């Protein structure tokens, strides 16, 4: 069972930028990924609600798993 709740998802630009605002038991998390026309993620960030980068590989993997299950 996932502890995340999707709050917002935006898509824009030629290189597609996906912005996911999700929430876990500690608060809101902003995950952004940039996808090229081949569908490959070329960059991504994980930040807290104040815009500070989150350097937590385990949390990053959990977020990616959650996002992958949405599609």
Structure, explained:
The chain is an alpha+beta fold. The protein has one domain (about 5-70). It contains one helix and four strands, in the order E-E-E-E-H. It has one helix at about 55-70, and strands spanning about 5-10, 15-25, 25-35, 40-50. Strand 2 (about 15-25) and strand 3 (about 25-35) form a beta hairpin. The protein is globular and about 35 Å long. The two termini are about 15 Å apart. The model has no long low-confidence stretch (mean pLDDT about 90).
Radius of gyration: 12 Å
In what range is the share of β-strand residues? over 45%
Shape: globular
Number of helices: 1
N-to-C SSE string, H for helix and E for strand: EEEEH
Estimate percent helicity: 10-25%
**Low-confidence region ranges:** none
**What oligomeric state best describes the polypeptide chains here?**
single chain
Termini Cα gap: 17 Å
- Indicate the structural class: alpha+beta
Number of strands: 4
Strand order of the largest sheet: 1-2-3-4
Number of domains: 1
Mean pLDDT across residues: 91
Q: Sheet with the most strands?
A: 4 strands, antiparallel
